[in-house]
Write a structure and sequence with these properties.
This protein folds into two domains: 139 residues, Rossmann fold, CATH 3.40.50.720; 167 residues, Alpha-Beta Complex (L-2-Hydroxyisocaproate Dehydrogenase, Chain A, domain 2). Helices cover 42% and strands 20% of the residues. The chain contains ten helices and 14 strands. Strands 3-2-1-4-5-6 form a six-stranded parallel sheet, with helices on both faces. The protein has a three-stranded antiparallel sheet with strand order 7-10-11. The chain has a three-stranded antiparallel sheet with strand order 12-13-14. A hairpin with a 2-residue loop joins β13 and β14. 44% of the residues are buried.
Length: 316
């Protein structure tokens, strides 16, 4: 009888996918890592290259280029396939073409007998997570989008730099669409155990507008990176590894991922980024932050933009 080991299947070995696979190998997160791509030679080359690094890895990992049939025994399938965001494009511009791509991919995965957890990273991630949930027929808890995990990390980094505090001790959230309508939840920012308002009171060089500038840097980071080097991939790859680790190690970690709202925050029938408790079963629960009125209005706007954008595509 085969010994049960953790298996992760990565679909899409482009910039994000290959960076994710490399980070997975370096952190020793899973026992088996399968690479699947429409470009079979690319997936085979990545697998060979990574296997040559195994003597330097923290733990043994079996890596190979595979097919959708390998999803049958997978615990997690990570979806990074799809068209990339080009300079000048928003994430929402990718809706139609990536939804069509995902419909075929998810069907093949489900035909393999897959019964694990989807982690979706392709953009627009909120809409593609919703589409994956619909196409797969899996419970909502087992379809997770990367949501605003990267935006939240960028926010924590900016706050850490501004206050000269280790970003790992900054507690803050970006929620909403992973895109232009996302919003910072200033009312729940804590620097260690110190609320943001208290930290600002004692910061001698604080100027009105500093927080707004900080958020613009967070919101528009992807555009700057794309203009500079063509794509973003290291940050989101590490975020995906963090989600994978929380699942496989049953951590009950709170991460800002994209999930289905069913009345939480006053909205329903929408995948969107909010803090969630993530464990071996997927999303255990949604953490409902108490938003102020301004934050509620901005979150509602984000929901409405996503619903308006996704309606014609998913109804087609």
């Amino acid at each position: 009888m085969k010994k049960k080991v953790n298996r992760v299947v990565l679909v899409g070995t482009g910039f994000v996918g290959s960076s994710y696979a490399f980070a997975m190998l370096n952190q020793g997160i899973t026992e088996e890592l399968v690479l699947v791509d429409i470009n079979k030679d690319k997936a085979a080359g990545d697998a060979m290259d990574m296997n040559h690094g195994l003597p330097f890895a923290p733990s043994k990992t079996k890596v190979w280029n595979g097919t959708y049939a390998d999803c049958n025994h997978a615990d997690i399938v990570v979806l990074t396939a799809g068209a990339n965001q080009k300079p000048g494009e928003t994430r929402l511009d990718l809706v139609a073409k990536n939804t069509a791509i995902f419909k075929g991919i998810v069907k093949e995965i489900m035909d393999s007998g897959f019964d694990g957890i989807f982690v979706v990273a392709a953009n627009p991630v909120d809409i593609l997570s919703y589409a994956t949930w619909k196409f797969s027929g899996l419970p909502k808890e087992r379809v997770i989008g990367s949501g605003t995990i990267l935006d939240t990390a960028r926010f924590r980094y900016e706050l850490g730099e501004y206050f000269n505090i280790d970003t790992r001790n900054v507690h803050a959230y970006i929620i909403g669409e992973h895109g232009d309508t996302e919003l910072p939840v200033y009312s729940h920012v804590n620097l260690g155990a110190k609320p943001l308002a208290k930290a600002l009171e004692i910061k001698e060089d604080y100027k009105p507008g500093d927080l707004d500038e900080m958020f613009v840097n967070v919101r528009d980071a992807a555009y700057k990176i794309i203009d500079a080097k063509g794509a973003t991939f290291y940050g989101i790859a590490m975020g995906l590894v963090r989600i994978t680790k929380a699942i496989l190690q049953d951590e009950n970690s709170i991460l800002t991922v994209s999930t289905l709202l069913e009345g939480e925050y006053g909205h329903d029938d929408i995948y969107i980024g909010v803090p969630c408790v993530v464990n071996r079963d997927g999303i255990r629960e949604i953490v409902e932050l108490e938003l102020n009125e301004e934050e509620k209005e901005k979150f509602a706007h984000s929901v409405n933009v996503l619903k308006k954008t996704m309606a014609p595509v998913l109804e087609a």
